[in-house]
């Protein structure tokens, strides 16, 4: 079964032609669907009785009749629940499937794809070229327009290096033929998308381009002996002029400056100088993603699309990318569309928010915090107006009943007319009392032409139905004591390689909150493996409570679930927990556990694990470690595959957990809320969030500590996340590339 994206919109005469690149997108009536077409090789030509009969593919509509509007140079944050179609929208834009986006518009996209295996490159024609490329070469050759110029220069230069005088003629004809081929592609696209008078003109243009293409093809295949001397002279001179023009354009691109910028970008994303010449395909999935991100940043596209760019970055890389994109805002007209679960990252970069909800796109001028504040203010404002109007309606209805009753009893026509007049007012004049600009409502100005209702009904903004996450209370301990403690722990893989960990001391008691931050490669994963008992320490000791139940969420828990789902396509979330619990829990208890994490009903019992989304897999992995009510949760990068709505729900759930939590994360919001217990004023948290302000006497002894692991030493941060973040800012300023 193959999925394809279908995008349609209201085309207007104002849409730019495909041969004109644009830096703004304004598409009305946009509808995007995902069609699932079934491969049916057994259906041969004989199975089609009629030429016009077509099997309609199954299609699921993700976005319906909405307005896509992107202004030049603006940095947008695209938000919406997992599964609402954000990535599909971005892919449709990048592939220029939206009819209102000209084909010549330069769009660079970073999207979350399976890049861990070489199979992901099976559709690339020049796979051998990719295999040979180093990290630096991969970044430098990511600009397709520059690659096109270089390819033409190589073709023409090689033609002049041989003794055959006809080689330049062949080369220039091949260059022209390729150019006409591109024109043919655009003409075919225009003819297929347009109708009416514009469609007729597009089909005429297509016929003209087809004739040019055929003529170009005939010239390209012309026999040597049939080419006359004048044609050879003319084409040779054209080849020479074209080569000089291309070389001048290439020199204007300042290749040396681009290489220096590429090195600075790679350095900012965590690459060391010695890895620049390492083959690209030998990198792990996370480092490939960083390399792909660098290849996007080095370009100067009209539109830059970044889908979860921070997933494989440590905090230094995240802070560097924040500063780089902020610098880009002031020096470039590139429009940025960003999707990220990191609230701080979105707030720092985005100046407008695009909200994908109920298959519609809405826009807000301001960052994410401003949007949430405005949403709450609008909800309060319209809620109060609706309550006041409901009281007014109730009073008027009572008055109408009383007046009607009195009028009928006394045969008073005046009272009956009064009741009828009030009823008419009730029917026609209840609703929105203000205009769009906030002034007093006037029917002939604000709702002219509407005859069914004089006024629009008051619509109070509603919070999206979010995921509620509930964690079970931990199993009680029979006697107190530390759940886990590390004393003087040191570790090295080989004595001559130096210490990975050096004198680490850590103790966690019931209810404690500890967060470990640090740069990639500092030893966080090694320390976790020692704490969970996967590896023994080289020196020192680690002790655990004799009745400790430990829940460990590994950094690669999602990948492990995906592999299990591929091995057993029939495996469901309910089946997986059933295997883990081994008849300890009843089916009702298992369903209750999964439901408490947002995996209800048929999602738990009928949907295979291989078809669950990233956010659903995170919740399943969490269910896998909490079904037996552990007293200690060790969570390593749990927020990677979640949208920020679910991150908020997770933060609230973890805040109320009565056991101990050890959190390893680069997400500053998650560490601040869960570990430090801060109800961040810039981020909305659920009402049941339990931070330092809500702590009761029962848990007032809870210890909250943020550590940074550096050079093998675990250091406590007295000012928490802020202290570590500030220590990286000056370092980042020196790493940013200079812009000309």
List the helices and strands and how they pair.
Blueprint: E1 2-10, E2 25-37, E3 58-70, E4 75-79, H1 86-94, E5 107-110, H2 127-132, H3 135-140, H4 144-161, H5 167-193, H6 196-220, H7 229-252, H8 255-268, H9 285-297, E6 303-307, H10 315-331, E7 335-339, H11 343-349, E8 352-357, E9 360-365, H12 368-410, H13 413-428, H14 443-446, E10 484-491, E11 501-508, E12 513-517, H15 524-531, E13 539-544, E14 550-553, H16 557-567, H17 573-581, H18 587-596, H19 601-605, H20 614-626, E15 632-636, H21 644-655, E16 660-664, H22 668-674, E17 704-710, E18 713-716, H23 720-735
Parallel strand pairs: 4-7, 4-8, 5-6, 6-7, 12-16, 12-17, 14-15, 15-16
Antiparallel strand pairs: 1-2, 2-3, 8-9, 10-11, 10-13, 17-18
Please, could you describe this protein's structure?
It is a single chain. It is built from 23 helices and 18 strands. Helix 4 packs antiparallel against helix 5 (167-193), helix 5 (167-193) packs antiparallel against helix 6 and helix 10 packs across helix 23. It starts with a strand and ends in a 5-residue tail after the last helix. It is found in: Membrane.
């Amino acid at each position: 079964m193959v999925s394809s994206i279908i995008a349609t919109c209201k085309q207007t005469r104002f849409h730019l032609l495909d041969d004109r690149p644009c830096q703004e997108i304004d598409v009305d009536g946009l509808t995007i669907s995902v069609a699932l077409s079934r491969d049916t090789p057994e259906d041969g030509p004989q199975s089609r009785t009629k030429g016009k009969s077509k099997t309609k593919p199954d299609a699921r509509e993700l976005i319906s009749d909405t307005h896509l509007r992107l202004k030049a140079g603006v940095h947008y944050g695209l938000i919406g629940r997992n599964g609402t179609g954000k990535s599909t929208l971005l892919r449709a834009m990048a592939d220029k499937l939206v009819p209102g986006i000209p084909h010549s518009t330069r769009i660079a996209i970073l999207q979350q794809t399976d890049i861990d295996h070489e199979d992901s490159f099976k559709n690339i024609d020049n796979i051998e070229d990719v295999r040979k490329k180093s990290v630096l070469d991969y970044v430098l050759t990511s600009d397709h327009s520059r690659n096109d110029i270089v390819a033409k220069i190589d073709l023409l230069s090689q033609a002049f290096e041989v003794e055959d005088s006809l080689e330049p003629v062949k080369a220039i004809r091949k260059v022209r033929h390729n150019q006409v081929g591109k024109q043919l592609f655009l003409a075919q696209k225009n003819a297929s998308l347009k109708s009416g008078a514009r469609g007729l003109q597009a089909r005429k243009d297509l016929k003209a381009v087809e004739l040019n293409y055929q003529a170009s093809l005939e010239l390209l295949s012309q026999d040597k002996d049939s080419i006359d001397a004048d044609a050879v002279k003319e084409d040779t001179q054209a080849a020479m002029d074209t080569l000089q023009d291309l070389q001048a354009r290439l020199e204007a691109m300042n290749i040396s400056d681009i290489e220096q910028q590429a090195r600075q970008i790679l350095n900012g994303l965590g690459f060391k100088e010695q890895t620049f010449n390492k083959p690209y395909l030998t990198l792990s999935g996370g480092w490939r993603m960083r390399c792909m991100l660098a290849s996007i940043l080095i370009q100067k596209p009209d539109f830059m699309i970044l889908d979860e760019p921070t997933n494989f970055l440590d905090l230094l890389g995240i802070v560097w990318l924040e500063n780089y994109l902020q610098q880009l805002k002031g020096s470039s007209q590139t429009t940025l569309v960003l999707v990220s679960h990191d609230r701080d990252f979105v707030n720092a970069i985005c100046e407008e928010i695009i909200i994908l909800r109920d298959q519609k796109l809405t826009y807000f001028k301001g960052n994410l915090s401003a949007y949430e504040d405005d949403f709450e203010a609008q909800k309060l404002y319209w809620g109060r107006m609706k309550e006041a109007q409901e009281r007014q309606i109730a009073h008027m209805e009572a008055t109408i009943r009383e007046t009607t009753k009195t009028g009928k009893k006394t045969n008073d026509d005046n009272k009956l007319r009064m009741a009828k007049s009030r009823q008419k007012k009730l029917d026609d004049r209840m609703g929105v009392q203000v205009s769009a600009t906030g002034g007093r409502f006037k029917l002939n100005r604000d709702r002219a032409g509407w005859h069914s209702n004089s006024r629009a009904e008051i619509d109070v903004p509603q919070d999206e139905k979010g995921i509620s996450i509930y964690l079970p209370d931990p199993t009680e301990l029979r006697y107190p004591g530390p759940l886990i403690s590390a004393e003087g722990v040191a570790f090295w893989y080989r004595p001559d390689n130096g210490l990975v960990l050096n004198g680490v001391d850590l103790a966690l008691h019931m209810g404690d909150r500890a967060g470990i931050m640090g740069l990639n490669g500092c030893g966080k994963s090694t320390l976790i493996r020692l704490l969970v008992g996967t590896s023994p320490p080289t020196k020192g000791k680690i002790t655990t409570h004799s009745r400790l139940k430990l829940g460990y969420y590994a950094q690669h828990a999602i990948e492990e679930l995906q592999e299990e789902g591929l091995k057993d396509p029939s495996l469901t979330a309910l089946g997986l927990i059933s295997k883990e619990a081994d008849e300890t829990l009843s089916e009702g208890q298992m369903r209750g556990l999964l439901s408490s994490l947002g995996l209800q009903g048929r999602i738990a019992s009928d949907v295979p694990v291989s078809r669950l989304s990233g956010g659903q897999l995170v919740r399943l992995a969490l269910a896998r470690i909490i079904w037996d009510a552990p007293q200690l949760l060790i969570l390593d990068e749990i927020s990677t595959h979640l949208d920020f709505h679910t991150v908020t729900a997770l933060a609230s759930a973890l805040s109320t957990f009565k056991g101990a939590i050890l959190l390893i994360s680069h997400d500053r919001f998650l560490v601040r809320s869960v570990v430090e217990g801060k109800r961040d004023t810039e981020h909305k948290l659920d009402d049941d969030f339990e931070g330092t302000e809500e702590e009761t006497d029962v848990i007032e002894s809870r210890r909250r500590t943020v550590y940074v692991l550096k050079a093998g030493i675990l250091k406590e941060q007295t000012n928490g996340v802020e202290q570590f973040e500030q220590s990286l800012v000056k370092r980042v300023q020196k790493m940013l590339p200079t812009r000309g």
